[in-house]
Design brief:
9 helices, 15 strands, six-stranded parallel sheet, Quinone Oxidoreductase, Chain A, domain 1, single chain, 2 domains, seven-stranded mixed sheet, 330 residues
């Protein structure tokens, strides 16, 4: 088991000059309250982590803060009935890395109610290759299924397809038998997306213009991590009785859409929240990920770095320059 005290951590502080970030050595006494202590073995980087590290958006709401909204590790001490020392665990969200010290450190002290046991069949590194991005993609797939979206009804659109959420969504939907239409602003990633199972790749520009109230029906479902005009265009081109799962805002928080698709075509817009999702939803999503996600494709979309590289990766993920998923080894 990794050494527990002292340990290295990436710490964000805030002073008169604004946000500062630096690697530092901490002890267990520096961590926040919680009933489970975890030796962190792996983490990852999501869009929100990039915002926190660069300070581009006020993601961090308490200082000092260890960023990192995801972690995998081994329980070292526990006062929670569901966990004991030696248990491998996974955490996604719950404000960790924002209001509670997160995963970019050798140790974390957390509330046991936030944790789940590592799913059987997935290694700790694979759980972080999935991370919040992949777990969010699975929540979106579950939402589409709950609203009757099935492969026999038509294709499914995935926007931001070369990113973390998009890559996992393409791989999942393809394995489940859907025809996947992948939208990306990086045409050079067309072969990559087709290798994950995309049947068709379209350029982001097709969905970037001023949305029409109703467009030609092209897909029965969509998973959107982009927001703004892209989401509005995806909704306007959804088939009668279809559903769109919205889980991101890379293009913007606005939604320049019409009510027409909802009242004339019966389209459903399903919001996907991964941060505060109840434990039952989390376990359902992770169980399905362990069953339905092709491990070879997961490996194909994953790049591994030491944790110390995370500051270099943060601006890259915000600029859309990272393909797929990143595993950070602690």
């Amino acid at each position: 088991m990794p050494p527990t005290d002292p340990f290295k951590a990436l710490l964000i502080s805030k002073g008169d000059a604004g946000q500062q970030i630096a690697w530092t050595e901490l002890t267990l006494a520096d961590l926040m309250p919680g009933d489970v202590t975890v030796a962190v073995t792996h983490s990852t980087i999501n869009y929100k982590d990039g915002l926190a590290i660069t300070g581009k958006s006020p993601v961090v709401r308490r200082f000092p803060m260890i960023p990192g909204i995801d972690l995998a590790g081994i329980v070292t001490t526990s006062e929670h009935a569901d966990f004991k020392p030696g248990d491998p665990v996974v955490l996604n969200g719950w404000g960790v890395g924002e209001t509670h010290m997160g995963g970019y450190a050798g140790m974390a002290r957390l509330k046991g109610d936030w944790l789940i046991h590592k799913p059987d069949g997935l290694s700790p590194a694979e759980t972080m290759a999935i991370g919040t991005a992949g777990y969010t993609a699975m929540l979106a797939v579950l939402a589409l299924e709950a609203h009757g979206v099935t492969p026999d009804r038509g294709p499914v659109l995935v926007t931001g397809a070369a990113g973390g959420v998009g890559s996992v969504a393409v791989a999942l939907l393809s394995k489940l038998g859907f025809k996947v239409i992948a939208s990306t602003g990086r045409p050079s990633e067309s072969d990559y997306l087709k290798s994950l199972g995309a049947a068709e790749v379209i350029e982001r520009s097709e969905l970037a213009g001023t949305p029409r109230a109703l467009g030609k029906e092209r897909w029965v479902g969509a998973i959107d991590s982009v927001g703004s005009a892209t989401l509005a265009n995806a909704i306007s081109q959804t088939m009668y009785g279809g559903a769109v799962a919205a889980c991101g805002l890379a293009q913007g928080m606005d939604l320049p859409a019409s009510v027409a698709p909802f009242i004339l075509r019966g389209v459903t817009l399903a919001g996907i929240d991964s941060v505060m999702a109840p434990k039952t939803k989390r376990i359902a999503a992770w169980t399905r990920l362990a069953r339905d996600l092709d491990r070879d494709k997961l490996g194909q979309i994953t790049t591994t770095y030491p944790l110390e590289k995370v500051q270099e990766l943060a601006p890259q993920i915000l600029a859309g320059q990272i393909r797929g998923r990143v595993v950070l080894e602690i």
